[in-house]
Amino acid sequence: MSTPDPSYVEALIGRPISRRRAVRDGLLAGVGLLMGNHLTAYGRTSTPSDKAKTKAKAKSVIQVWLWGGPCHLDTFDPKPDAGYDYFGKYDKPIATNVNGIRIGQALPQLAKMADKYSLLRGMTHGNNAHEVASYMVMTGTKPVDGIVNPSVGAVLSYKKGYGAGYDGLIPPYVALTKPQGRFSEAGFLGSKYQPFATGGDPAKTPFAVEGVVAEGISDVRQKNRRELLGNLDTFARAMEGSPVIDRMTKNQQDAYSLILGEAKNTFDLSKEPDELRTAYGKNTFGQSCLQARKLVEAGVPFVTINAPGWDTHKKHFELMAQMLPQLDNGLSTLLKDLSERGLLDTTIVWCGGEFGRTPKIDWSAPWNGGRSHYGKAFSHLVAGGGFKGGHVVGVTSVRGEEVVERPVYPWDLTASIYEQLGIDPNGTLPTPDGKTAFISPLADKSIKLESGGVLREIM
């Protein structure tokens, strides 16, 4: 959002009410009000009543959301014996540093560190619609009439964030760089628990984080604005002691601490070594991975990297030639960086999309080698936060068309993530109408669910 030019403020001299309003609105619209639901949450004392039954192994989650759905045959579940109409250009899977595990040939960096992650090759839910599939994976629940469940990020924002005394200035649920959609948001928990979407592009300098870092506005100018606002705001001083004014003043102070203090530095990637930035990849995805590391290092509980472009109905292999190397460099460097900093043990890295893509390639026009939606069988990757590395959970058929051993449904995966975070998946969440809503549908006996169970093999 934009703020008034100083010349506009000067033009209003002699009209103190309008001048004050212009400065206040310009500043707070750009910072405080933009983050209103997040900033007003500080200082509230509501505490969730449900307690986890297990000790937390993880403190935070980085969700690498491959928006549109990546193909499992090209990435984490190669099928070199399926025939050209299935593997296409990717017929030579490569060995990893874990005996017996092979992955797609376009992921050589990830192949060197398979001991740090596990592959969930049994992912399934059977739905081929983007929105419904996204809802199931993001929330870990099945659609039910009359209720919209919160995403895992929103639940964590409630349980580990605002509802649990989180005192960081950066909101506890951050989306890089835009929300995936309404199914990645807060559902019945309300707007307070929505993700803070940064906007901007972390591959650019500066990374123009909405409401925090503005191109062309220096710290000196921001400080001058703050001083001008303080000098003009006689109303706030006259109303000192009013709960409304005090809360607004606190939000303003938090906003300034965010745009001028240490929190701002969290979004400054220019201070990272150039060698490291190059290893991540100097593209939006790679730099988003680096930014995610900086956010969890700063104590943010949940970060989503929304990486679009995986909905490859047309010219699939031309697109994969660019996207798979970016995924390989960004994700492998993220795992290495977290591990070297001692953060991987307490940070879950969760990578995947809403579904996979059709194992059989459509070579006909207009698709010209495309793959469509496929929810029957797909793969995710999990690492860190108490999850064991070097394992494979689930097996698909020789052509990758169906899960033949150990299915993993979205609710199996999310319940496992909750347990690693010390959140009882059998616990409940507050709803506006006072009804009981379980954190995981596995605890709700009124809903019929297929389930392979939580991921005890790697927990």
Notes on the structure:
By secondary structure, this protein is an alpha/beta fold. It folds into two domains: 1-30 and 214-266, no CATH class; 49-212 and 268-458, Alkaline Phosphatase, subunit A (3-Layer(aba) Sandwich). It has 15 helices and 16 strands. It has helices spanning 6-11, 16-30, 36-39, 84-87, 108-111, 130-139, 152-161, 219-232, 234-238, 243-260, 262-266, 274-280, 284-297, 316-340, 410-420, and strands at residues 60-66, 94-95, 102-103, 117-123, 173-176, 196-197, 302-307, 347-352, 356-357, 373-374, 378-383, 391-393, 395-396, 403-405, 428-429, 437-438. The strands form five sheets. It has an eight-stranded mixed beta sheet with strand order 6-5-7-1-8-11-4-12. Strands 2-3 form a two-stranded antiparallel ribbon. The chain has a two-stranded antiparallel ribbon with strand order 9-10. Strand 15 (428-429) and strand 16 (437-438) form a beta hairpin. The longest helix is centred in the last third of the chain and has 25 residues, at 316-340. It is globular and about 75 Å long. The model is unreliable at 1-52 and 220-232 (pLDDT under 50).
